[in-house]
Amino acid sequence: MADQALRVLLVEDNPGDAVLFQEMLAEADPDGFSLRRAETLLEALDQVAEFSFDVIALDLNLPDSHGLETFTAMRSYAPRTPVVLLTGNDDDAMAVAAVEAGAEDYLVKDNLDAERLAQALRYAVVRHHRSGRRDEPPGGDSGGGKLIAVVGSRGGTGSTTVACHLAEAAARLHGERVLLMDLDVEGGNVGFLVQTQGPYGLIDAVENVHRLEETFWRSLVDEREQLDVLPSPALLGRGELPPAGRFRHLVRFAKNRYAWTVADLGRLTRHTAVVMQEADRVLLVTTSDLAAMHSARRLLGAIGELGVPAAAVTIVRNWAGRWREGERIFEDVVKAQVAASLPSAEKELTEACTQGRLARPESEFGKAVSSLAAQLTGLPVPEPAGRKAGWKGWRLFSRQAEVRAGG
Hints:
Elements: E1 6-11, H1 15-28, E2 33-38, H2 41-50, E3 55-59, H3 68-77, E4 83-87, H4 92-100, E5 105-108, H5 114-131, E6 146-152, H6 159-174, E7 178-182, H7 189-194, H8 202-207, H9 214-220, E8 222-223, E9 227-230, H10 244-257, E10 260-266, H11 270-276, E11 281-286, H12 290-305, E12 313-320, H13 324-328, H14 330-334, E13 340-343, H15 346-354, H16 364-377, H17 399-406
Parallel strand pairs: 1-2, 1-3, 3-4, 4-5, 6-10, 6-11, 7-9, 7-10, 11-12, 12-13
Antiparallel strand pairs: 8-9
Helix pairs in contact: 1-5, 2-3, 2-10, 6-16, 10-11, 16-17
């Protein structure tokens, strides 16, 4: 039956071999296999992002990737899918190394027949299920990192400022490297706020997700003391973006590499939507002016439609005290409870920006974001030096939200 067919992704650049592969499957079982093909590793990753496959048949030597790195990249981005390798006669040692690294099987093309091919693909699926590998996290073998996605209800709410300070605070509090990723390709303001210097950034990473090994990755990010920054180019509507699925691949790579990644999404688009679906926490930054509050209400509905649980969304009210009348009716308009409030600190932030730095941790805004970072990442809220133990500062003031943000 067609609806019971095994879904196979064939990654093969040789047209003759691809035709032969298809003919063999048709000979073995005309209705038993549903086949899609990719000619390059990058094209295969696009297919993996868009479609669900039961098994991948992978040639190790492709136009954009060669040898064991081909399998390593595929397994990083599709850890739940069994892989069967297709090799030449002289690739046995490499194929064995790939099997030892997690491939289910390898087939020598010159020795292949229809029965052997069909059997290998079916057995690979069975072995993969029995081994329990389908329980691996979607981010790869470890996948232990967490992603905080920061999105503004509209322009001018200060979401980029919050994202930059949040990433810096998380790195400082945890004492380990944090990634700050700018996914706002229209604005690209992260690089401006933190004064990045490198020539590369987000689009370079997205277009080369199949090549993100250590040396190449280090050339893309701007390295600080405990913060890596991946800036955005501020395309401002110019140029065509890579497929949305590649942004998902990039985020999964980051979650494998960093304990915490903070992504500034800018506004909700097709590309940032796929990133939001990968987030462990979504920080919706708004203000108390009427337009921003109405936008926040609509955005909450859109976030819910993406499948993000309400408990994973934290509403942050920025520029507290500027619109006091709006604050009084905030929860009536937004139809949700505000979880944290950040002070209006225009003078403080402007001074920091003109000096090419972020607000100092001991400043009012710095202390407020440190408190927020601690809650979101599960650390105790830091008490500022020189204050009484009972000082509450700008802590999260909703007990329910406090529990949610910490969980």
